[in-house]
Amino acid sequence: MRPYVEANISHKSHTTIKYFLKMLSSVSETLIFIFLGVSTVAGPHDWDWTFVTVTVILCLVARVLGVVALTYIINKFRIVKLTTKDQFIIAYGGLRGAIAFSLGYLLNEEVFPKKKMFLTAIITVIFFTVFVQVSFV
Questions:
Q1: Whole-angstrom Cα distance, residue 103 to residue 100?
Q2: Where are the bilayer-spanning segments (predicted)?
Q3: Over the chain (137 residues), what is each successive 10-residue block's mean pLDDT?
């Protein structure tokens, strides 16, 4: 919508909207990670080494396979192709898991009795991608 909105509002309004959205994004991200931190410390956890290890490995493999497959498809239609280096950066960066944590937190424990184990695995994947992967950069 950027080309349509920018042409129809003043420069001052454009600047105001731009900084308001940046602030809203930062506040939302901060609240999500505060909630994640509180859930990590205070929440009940059900630790299963096998499940957590397999989850971390499969998330990394699925991320790489997804990026490679999708860039293969999209490169057929692009003029400037995404290189192998670009694909590695996209796969390595990945998402940090706020959506996965939110969806796992919304699971009904009566219907899904392993909710605690899933939340523990999700938190582990998030911490792995934030702290372990970033430390290798």
A1: 5
A2: 20-43, 49-75, 87-106, 118-136
A3: 75 88 89 84 87 92 91 93 89 74 87 91 86 72
